[in-house]
């Protein structure tokens, strides 16, 4: 199976909406999606961007757009009181968990997203992140220790640097064979592109 890299930040509303679509996308398109949370704040520093809702004029529009997109895809959504936040803890926790079980890491990621954008939990509080671990039979004490280990701190930094070097400036950001796609609203276009590339490959091999 071909692969799609899915870069996202746990504080990103559009990243959350995209995450809710990934299982269906994988099945429909016939690809493997590699989940790669990264720290979008580092990208913002390099591009001079700021969080959408804090931008004059654009902020009001994007708040409405986020709510509209959530309605259209029938995904529970509300802007959290503490928005945005620096998602270091869930990002490090994801990679620690992925080293044990990629499938479980995905489930954990969706739980973190839903807790923040659907249930209004303050994920800036690490205890809410560790509480999510218990819902998946993960030892919260082990996770609490893991996020402080240099290995996962460094890995999160490396993935973030990798994402920026590839050109990821926002969340969600997708790459298929080095072709970049930015935004939840580009997922269908990404699917079309993958189908086109597969058709071209089949015709060349015929």
Strand content: 5-15%
Give the strand order, joined by hyphens, for the main sheet: 2-1-3-4
Distance between the termini: 19 Å
The overall average pLDDT, rounded, is 94
Supply Rg.
17 Å
CATH architecture: 3-Layer(aba) Sandwich
CATH superfamily: Glutaredoxin
Tell me the number of strands: 4
How many discrete domains?
1
Reading the helices and strands in chain order gives EHHEHHHHHHHEEH
Quickly name the level 1 CATH class.
Alpha Beta
Derived structural class: alpha+beta
Secondary-structure blueprint of this entry?
Elements: E1 2-8, H1 13-19, H2 22-29, E2 31-37, H3 40-47, H4 58-72, H5 88-98, H6 102-117, H7 126-134, H8 140-146, H9 150-166, E3 173-176, E4 179-182, H10 187-205
Parallel strand pairs: 1-2
Antiparallel strand pairs: 1-3, 3-4
Helix pairs in contact: 5-6, 5-9, 7-8
């Amino acid at each position: 199976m071909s692969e799609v890299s899915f870069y996202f930040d746990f504080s990103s509303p559009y990243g959350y909406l995209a995450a809710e679509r990934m299982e269906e996308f994988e099945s429909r398109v016939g690809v493997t999606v590699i989940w790669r949370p990264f720290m979008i704040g580092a990208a913002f520093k390099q591009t001079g961007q700021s969080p959408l809702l804090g931008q004059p004029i654009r902020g009001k529009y994007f708040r409405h757009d986020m709510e509209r997109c959530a309605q259209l895809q029938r995904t529970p959504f509300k802007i959290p009181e503490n928005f945005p936040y620096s998602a270091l803890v869930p990002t490090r926790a994801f990679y620690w968990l992925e080293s044990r079980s990629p499938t479980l890491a995905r489930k954990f990621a969706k739980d973190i997203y839903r807790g923040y954008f659907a249930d209004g939990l303050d994920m800036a509080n690490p205890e809410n992140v560790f509480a999510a671990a218990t819902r998946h039979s993960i030892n919260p004490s082990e996770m609490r220790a893991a996020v402080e280990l240099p290995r996962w701190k460094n890995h999160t930094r490396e993935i973030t640097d990798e994402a920026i070097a590839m050109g990821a400036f926002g969340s969600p950001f997708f790459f298929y064979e080095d072709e970049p796609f930015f935004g939840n609203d580009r997922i269908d276009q990404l699917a079309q592109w993958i189908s086109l590339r597969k058709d071209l490959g089949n015709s060349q091999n015929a």
